Amino acid sequence: MNFSGKYQMQSQENFETFMKAVGMPDDFIQKGKDIKGMSEVVHNGNHFKFTVTIGSKVTQNEFNLGEECEIEFLTGEKVKTVVQLEGENKLVTTLKGVKSVTEFNGDTAISTMTLGDIVFKRISKKI
């Protein structure tokens, strides 16, 4: 399965609660809660490049499955991690105690981030 494409956020759950829990400032949370972010995925073999655009902020992360890499966390901090493919369609990693799962199903990408009992879910559609 190839995950390449551009995905537009359609909906999200628990954005404010989750962002507060990971230490994001209130002004960022207020600005970001209504922005429909865009993600572009370039997938080639075991190599992935994610470009995420939320308003004027653009974040790029690249990694190879199963190899240590540096990913920019939500707070802007660079964190070492390993991204694994679970099954045929889930990218899974843990960053600073946050479990991140991105599941691709057809033209839908569902990103779930879990910190303790707080679950942030974002649903995006391929455009």
Please summarize what this structure is.
This protein is mainly beta and 127 residues long.
* Strand line-up across the major sheet: 4-3-2-1-11-10-9-8-7
Unreliable stretches covering 5 or more consecutive residues: none
| CATH fold-level label | Lipocalin
The percent range for strand residues is over 45%
Largest sheet: 9 strands, antiparallel
Summed up, the domain count is: 1
CATH architectural group? Beta Barrel
Question: Overall pLDDT, averaged?
Answer: 92
CATH class: Mainly Beta
Overall radius of gyration: 14 Å
**What is the percent of helical residues?**
10-25%
- Helix-strand makeup class: mainly beta
Number of strands: 11
Element pattern in H and E: EHHEEEEEEEEEE
How far is it from the N-terminal to the C-terminal residue, by CA? Answer: 18 Å
CATH homologous superfamily identity: Calycin beta-barrel core domain
